[in-house]
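[Q] Does anyone have a clean structure-token version of this?
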Amino acid sequence: MCTCITWPGTEFYFGRNLDLDRGFGGEPVRVPRNFPLRFRHQPELSRHYAMTGMARVEEGEPLFAEAGNEKGLCMAGLYFPGNAVYREPEAGKDNIASFELIPWILGNCASVKEAETLLARLHIVTTAFSQTLSPAPLHWMLADEANCLVLESVEEGLQIYNNPIGVLTNNPPFPFHCMNLNRYLNLTPGQPRNGFAPGLRLEPYSQGMGALGLPGDASSVSRFVRAAFARWNALPGKNRAEGVQQFFHILDSVAMVRGTVLTPEGRPDMTRYACCFGAGAYYYKTYWDSRIREVRLPEENLESACLYRGNRVE
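[A] Here you go.
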């Protein structure tokens, strides 16, 4: 369960809520240009674009939940169970395991347009990181300031969708979410007008009644609608600091409160952390600490070959 959005506020922002019933061992990770990125079926990238994001580090390798590179290209993986289908490697294609996809694209590409060329050869394979870390069923949102895509590897093959909405959650597949927004085209952040019966004196009795019918539950379909409404109606801040804070307020509108959503096993699903890429920095806050923290790869360290790690987020 997760929600990912872009937002053209004071500048381009990209980020997500990560909703899980348990910690995944993530920590803020900075990958400079010369840190070797290794792939199971492709040559090593010994030099690439620098990137920053939240990752679980296993055997010295960052397994990213989301990341953004130095050129402003950002990508996040979201849970997609029952629909994600990965395949065996095939000759003549770029065979990439699901856990490698984010560093593969962000390491090679400066923009979505560049990534589209790479995606034409992409083949997401079933290869696991290890015997104890099997492939997670995911789909992905990839965006820069100009364009946004959704990638879904399903039974029919790899599907790539333009995403003008700038939102992604979980199941069902992306085309359903786009169609479903048509159910809410009457909602407005302003006061509603009487379209029910012009001959009756019907007036709003409260602020916010223009959005009556906006779903409030935590399902992926409802979060998609609610995030889209907030994303398209939120006002930009006056400066970068206000822009970042406003972005987190949008994510707060679809955050999960611990105890309000239980898994079939009875464990509480919750928003473990929320994050934002903007202005060359990675910002995040956690469920237990709402202070917004900034992670930035200093210019003097961009050419390093060392992985820079932060504190683990639970």
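[Q] Thanks! Anything notable?
[A] The chain has a mean pLDDT of 94.
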